Structure formats: structure tokens, C-alpha cells
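tool_call: predict_structure(chain=1)
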Amino acid sequence: MSSTYSSNLALELIGAGEQAGNWGSTTNTNLGTLVEQAISGYTTQAITDGADTVITIPNGASGVARNMTIECTGTLTGARNLVVPANRKLYFIYNNTSGGYAVTVKVSGQTGVSVPNGAKVTLVCNGTDIVAANNFINTALTGVPTAPTAAFGTNNTQIATTAFVQAAATPIASIYTVGLIYTSIVSTNPASLFGFGTWVAFGAGRVLIGDGGGFSAGATGGSADAVVVSHTHTASSSSSVSDPGHAHSADQPYPGSTAANGGGYYGQGNTRNTGASTTGISVSTSTSVNATGVSGTNANLQPYIVVYMWNRTA
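tool_result:
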């Protein structure tokens, strides 16, 4: 009976009555080479730039894909694939390539798992494709664990490292530069929101006005109270009463004349003039200006809505 081979590690299974006198050699290859590769083998594999790299598990012979740990090397100009056979086995993959690109470990025609540059991951072939061997559920990390940093702009469910967050925050910091005014209806200091900069409360009780037209940036002025422009009120009046002089006249009877009724005859007698004289009458007048309107306190305000303002100072 001819030899056969195991389905996963491709170890040679000697048939009954076969390989007389060669059992030792075959067994040594199985145990000393092939099984050892599968259990503790560590090998490096150069990843071809521009094409898939294919590794195999040959029957009864040494093969790269049989090794437990495979360190990927080489210089890449883009993401590449490491194609492995569909044999069920465990893999430790270390992407130690140069260029900063991922290597996807997969079975031909399948999706596989993308291993970021610099990452060390545990994968398993399930007979169809490569999948992650670990399922971390509610795992509490302690110390200072590290993870690969995704390229800026990455938008998926992978972990974001502090380096990734800082890189993402840099464009925001370049927009919110020192001297910028930030407004909000929430009282939270922008330093807590953005994670950078020193922000101080700004412009309490004041509105903003653009530089120019006689106004300089940073200057303050104005009043919440109504301002009455300086002015004067005048009033005048006059009156006088005077007597320029006048005359009184009276008729006098002729002396010795007697009328029929026993009265005397009257004729125009002498006229007597009085001298010019004032009457002694005086007239006094006064003028008053009455106040009107309401208080000007807090009466000089445009329609407004109150917000929180912050100025970045550092």
C-alpha cells in the first residue's frame, strides 16, 4: 500500500509493508522537520512587490507555509497579498516589511485578514480562508499596550492610537490658531473639547465689531446706557407796561348864568392837562423747561442673543 499524507500538515503516512528499511528516515523527516516546523518553526518570507506571494505545504517535504511563525520582509510600494494553502493550521504573522503597507494573508480567491505594517497577529486557516484566531471579549488592557497606527483619514472600526488622534487633531489645531475667537451656547472650555490650546473667556457683556472705519482690533468702547448728546435749551421773554401821559378835560359853568330850570348854563370851560406819569403797574414773567422721557440705563442695546466666547491665547 502506497504512502498517503495527512490533510493539514501533509505528513507522510507510510503504507503497510512499504519503505522497508526506510522507516527511520521517513519518520525523522515527519517528526524532526515537518512537525517541528508546524509547532515551532520560524521563517522569513520576502513579499513580492507588485504581485501576490504564494507559499505552500508540500507533501512530506519542508515548506514555508507549514511554519508556525512567518516574518514578512521586503520593501513594498503598496498593500500586498500572502497566499497560503487551505490546510487547517495556525499562523503567527509578523509584517516586518518596509514602506508602511499592509500584507493580507489569505487563501486564493478569498478575503483573508489584513495585517498592518509592524503588526504581529495570530491567524488561523479554517479550511476555507484565513481568519483572526483571537476573539477579545471584554478584555481589560493594563500597562501601556500598543497598536498599529492607521493612516490619516482611515475610517473603520480598528483601534485609534494616540498617534492617530494627534495626527487627526493637527489640522483642527491649524484652523483654531492663537488669537481665534470661539463662540458656543455651551459653557465648556474649548480646551476640553479639542484637547489642545489655552482658551480664556472673552468679551463678557460686549459685541464684536470689525477692524477698520476708525476702529482698531482689540480696542474697547461704547456704553450699554443711552447717551444724550451735549446740547442746551434757551428761552426768553419780555413785557413792560408804561403810561406816556394823558389829559383830562372838564366843562365849567359860566359865572352868574341861570337856566330855565334853575340850573346854570354850561359851556366849554378850560381844559386841564395832567402831566405824563407811569401807572405803577408791574408785570413779571418766568419760563421753565420740563423733563420728559424714560431712564437711559441699559437702553442703548441692539437686539441680542447671549453666547459664550473664548479666545485662544496659547
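agent: The radius of gyration is 57 Å. Proceeding to next step.
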